[in-house]
Amino acid sequence: MVSGTHLRTERSGGSRKKGPKDKDKDPTQVGGWRGGEVAATPRPSRNPEKTPRRTWHILRSLERAMSNPRYITPGATVMVTRRTLRRHHLFRPDAMIQRIFLYFLAVCAERFGILVHAAVLMSTHEHLIITDVQGNLPRFLERFHRPVALATKVLRGWEGPIWDTGKTSIVRLESEQAIIEKIAYVLANPVAAGLVHRSEEWPGVTQRLSELWQSKLIATRPDEYVDPDNPLWPKQTELSLSLPPTLAGKDSREGIVRRIGAELRLLEEGARAEVRKNRWRVPGARRVRLMSPTKRARSFEKLRSLNPTFATGRGRRDLYVRVARQLRAFRESYREAFTAWREGARDAPFPHGTWEMVQVHGARGTPCGSSVAV
Fold first, then answer.
1. Which candidate among 21, 51, 133, 163 keeps its CA 20 to 30 Å from the CA of 179?
2. Could you say which architecture CATH assigns to the domain 76-286+307-311?
3. pTM for the full model?
4. Residue ranges of the chain whose pLDDT lies below 50
């Protein structure tokens, strides 16, 4: 039963060893344009001429293995994606798994000041479009994912971890177009996976386009998996799906829904064409409910593909360039501060947007500087 508040933090997985072809690559360069998204990894900045050869190689290996720091700022709208271990169907869309997911999402979103705009729970992964009002995104994800995993383990009789060992994907949405594209992408995910013909047919957690931001979801506590005497978990709570702040005031709700609907239709038509081309069999809602949670998804998946950290939307090359430069500058400043901090300079200032070193380890952060205007 989920009764405590102490939760373990995520651990990032290891990284592959770079080969000769990767020697001169720098994905943070502006030339790395990939449709408005980028995944960046700056190179180590140590000088081998001032460091013994053996020590240089050890330090360089450590810096390569270290994951990139999260850029966390209050008010950011992001798309969160996390999948189950080895793509097992542990989130098969039955009534209890929906109740578990929605309850903990509602409670944790209210507790950490998170605005939820769209949520889709597939059988192998989750998609969330949320706004981090207070800059508490890492803590929200930690406190939300852990009870979902514990309850799912009991429900499925599963031994071992529920979530994949990789880092949770967090994509910052830097423009109105990016938000609209990603909301449509999230809603179209069941069709893109070849599980149903239309997004409204998905039997799991999702939203109908016509009902976006018009209704509240009532989430009841799953007493089978939660201590009913723990005051942290109320018996009933509400989850209100709200309009993203970036879009509020720019257009009416109906106008925004029409733009999302146009994007959604394009995605669904493309997904159905792909299904026909490959002669896949669409199982439909009834068969999806009967899938074994222990089975794995068998669709092809590229390994070691790019993991985007932000999206600017189609046709926003200028914004892409600015955001890429800002992110690159943040990571360079972070690594300089981290190197100084590791060498004993505990007063080394970390750049604005640093979360873990400031919130967890008590390092000194810098005030909010210039931000990218969208």
1. 163
2. 2-Layer Sandwich (3.30)
3. 0.82
4. 2-18, 20-46, 48, 370-374
